[in-house]
Amino acid sequence: MKVAVMGAGAVGCYYGGMLARAGHEVVLIGRAQHVEAFNRVGLRLQAQSFDQTISVQAGTDAAIAAGADLVLFCVKSTDTENAGAQLRQHLRPDTLVLTLQNGTDNADRLRGVIPQPVAAAVVYVATEMAGPGHVRHHGRGELVIEPSARSEDVAQALAAAGVPTEISDNVRGALWVKLILNCAYNALSAITQLPYGKIVQGQGVADVIRNLVAECRAVAAAEGVTLPGDVDAAVRLIAETMPTQYSSTAQDLARGKASEIDHLNGFIVRRGQALGIATPVNLAMHTLVKLLESKQVPA
User: Fold this and answer.
1) Which of 1, 26, 113, 229 is the most buried (most CB within 10 A)?
2) Helical packing angle, 10-21 and 151-160, nearest 10°
3) 27 forms bridges with which residues in the sheet?
4) Quick one: CA dihedral 234, 258, 143, 219, positive or negative?
5) Are 45 and 52 in contact (CB under 8 A)?
6) pTM (global) more than 0.70
7) Are 174 and 228 in contact (CB under 8 A)?
């Protein structure tokens, strides 16, 4: 396949790198500092079992996605519509766009701006950009993807590349579980600038996480969402399987960038208000992260 990664940050570079390592043609669309490194020396993928530099094509313009069979859509939730509009004219009518984003509504928002088929994916991976053109993998890496005409082929290609991939009829529920996990950990990691393993050792943290999760569950129930699996076990598993990982929100704040908190705890707060459900702990997390953003991100 020809695979384009729109938003070649830590998540996109990991999955794009795994596919390139398996022999697929991969083009990365990202920020100039990373694109320069990709084109000069390649993508360095530092995984848990290997450390390899992989040859890829890269650019800052969506035009290099032309001819792609698959797009891994990895931009921040705040950039969904804008990035989709940039891609739209360069893709074939049958190109599958797979959204590897936080939040629950990105696939629907993207369908509003592009005619190509869109499938949502739930991502469980711990990664960071350790430097220009250099992605470091801290753990996990599985995907849960939505059924589509091409999902089976894509899932097989991902699995063959070493990415455990499941097709699920309840991706909406799986996205909500991922949202709950993000609401439980992202803001705490951002506010404290601590990784998950250290956060859970803090005094009172277990009660805060329990309350965050309970509020999210209440909103999900009011939305009519069926949450698959054992949510409480999934929450515990994050700290156990990704103890050294800092949340994407923490990484954004550390770099002076705007975060996706409006689409995480902020989303729960907005939906709670609309549905008449109190979400005071999510409100506190959202408020604190926005205050920290205001100290370093220009309005």
Assistant:
1) 26
2) 80
3) 4, 57
4) positive
5) yes
6) yes
7) yes
Residue 298 pLDDT greater than 90, yes or no: no
State how far the Cα of 257 lies from the Cα of 263, in Å rounded to an integer: 15
What CA–CA distances, in Å, run from 11 to 91, 134, 143, 290?
22, 12, 11, 23
| CB burial readout 209-226, b (16+ within 10 A) else e | bebbbebbbbbbeeeebe
Q: What is the mean pLDDT of residues 146-161?
A: 97
Question: How far are the Cα atoms of 59, 113, 163 from residue 26, in angstroms, in the given order?
Answer: 11, 24, 16
Is 242 exposed, middle or buried, given 0-12, 13-18 or 19+ CB atoms closer than 10 A?
buried
Report the C-alpha gap between 212 and 183 in whole angstroms: 7
Alpha-carbon distance values, 225 to 67, 149, 280 (Å): 36, 24, 21
pLDDT bracket for residue 297 (50, 70, 90): low
Residue 189: what residue type? S
- Note whether 6 and 62 are within 8 A (CB): yes
For 62-108, the pLDDT digits (tens) are: 999 999 999 999 999 999 999 999 999 999 999 999 999 999 999 99
What was the pLDDT predicted at 299? 52
Mean pLDDT of 6-29: 98
Cα separation, 188 vs 285, in Å, equals 7
How far apart CA 38 and CA 43 sit, in angstroms, is 5
Residue 7 DSSP label: S
Q: Dump pLDDT digits (tens) for 208-226.
A: 999 999 999 999 999 999 9
